[in-house]
Amino acid sequence: MKYVDEFRDTYKGEALLWQIEKLCHIIGKPLKIMEVCGGHTHAIFKYGIEEVLPPSIELIHGPGCPVCVMTKGRIDDAIAIAEYPDVILTTFGDTMRVPGSSKSLLQAKAEGADIRMVYSPLDSLKIAQENPTKEVVFFGIGFETTAPSTALTILQAAGENLKNFSMFANHVLVIPALKALLENPDLQLDGFVGPGHVSMVIGTKPYQFIPQDYHKPIVISGFEPLDILQSIWMLLRQFVDGRCEVENQYNRLVKPEGNTIALKAINQVFIERETFAWRGLGDIPHSGLKIRPEYALFDAEVKFVIPNRTVADHKACQCGEILKGVLKPWQCKVFGTACTPETPIGSCMVSSEGACAAYYKYGRLPLVEKQNSSKKP
After folding, report:
1. E strands within the chain?
2. Least buried of 32, 53, 110, 349, by fewest C-beta within 10 Å?
3. What phi and psi values does residue 170 have, to the nearest 5 degrees?
4. How far is residue 127's CA from residue 147's CA, in Å, rounded to a whole number?
5. What is the 3-state secondary structure (H, E, C) of 95-143?
């Protein structure tokens, strides 16, 4: 890619849409396609892609938002760590406003806890170096995309013997989540637009189980409008050709073997948890990462006693069903009324990758009007 305009060209977009419409006519039946990544969801709404696709294509929004899938219990655990004396808790901005059972990290900060927003785990390392009498804990979240940076941060802390730094690890893995979705009888899908950022790390090979075991095609996609349109076109070509494969549209950055240096760092620092709780998806085996015992000095779950409780979601919030792709955000009763980005009830309305936040920011009024008109006799 030389210029971003190459991937936002109107004429190329119109040509792709013409081809997509032609293929939909040949297929002759409705299709449900899930874009796994929250970044794709926001791109789809930002560029109006869903509005220009043929009506026979329905896009389903997946659980690829690491902030959204974080349970209330894990937020409560982070708050409990932050409320320890002489602790500085650091985290990314989106995590600050995710509601726990009684409050968010932002509210805990307002009540006196020393909680700071950072842009990188290395920022947390610097804070630990500057505050040797404080215990600095980084609240690490994310899929395989962010796990390498946190792993390398722990390795640097170990190299510097920085004993006042630790990490509350909440990294999750995309492959077990996809398996859980495919096993869900309530969710009928025809294919996937695969996550680009995660795939930059893990490559394309781990997705082979999707066509082999579940007979669903998947196309790894970039995040520009032409990337997404071309990925949908590639999926439709597979349907027409009678193929079921893993294809890579994002080949300018994603390689079959992934990023071997990043994978090495992850495997050096982390091991899989036996199970990990996801908002909406429940406990998924081998879907989370924890710090290896040899790096226990930097593991906040070893250093601190945390509540580790299971906390139910708000009764009015249907974030779990939205993350599973069973409901659209505007089908939630509190969407856009009691639940807004300023007063979020669920995590999907908080994150910059959350489906509810995307609908609210880019598509709330048209979708609500469409919903209301569909109810009229």
Report:
1. 31-37, 57-64, 87-91, 114-117, 135-142, 165-171, 191-194, 218-220, 246-248, 270-272, 275-278, 282-285, 289-291
2. 110
3. -135, 35
4. 20
5. HHHCCCCCCCHHHHHHCCCEEEECCCHHHHHHHHHHCCCCEEEEEEEEC
Nearest of 309, 296, 290 to residue 79 by alpha carbon = 309
Return the DSSP state at 299: B
Q: At 285, give phi and psi (nearest 5°).
A: -60, 140
* Whole-number pLDDT of residue 1: 52
Beta-sheet strand order (sheet of 165-171): 114-117, 87-91, 135-142, 165-171
- pTM, two decimals, is 0.88
* Inter-residue contact 297 to 163 (CB < 8 Å): yes
Q: Name the token pair of 293.
A: 């015992």
Q: 370 falls in which pLDDT band (50, 70, 90)? A: very low
Categorize the per-residue pLDDT at 372 as very low, low, confident or very high, splitting at 50, 70 and 90.
very low
Count of beta carbons in the 10 Å neighbourhood of residue 96: 19
Q: Pull the structure tokens for residue 227.
A: 């990337």
Return the amino acid letter for 214.
Answer: Y
The CA distance from 65 to 85, in Å, is: 32
Beta bridge partners of 271: 290
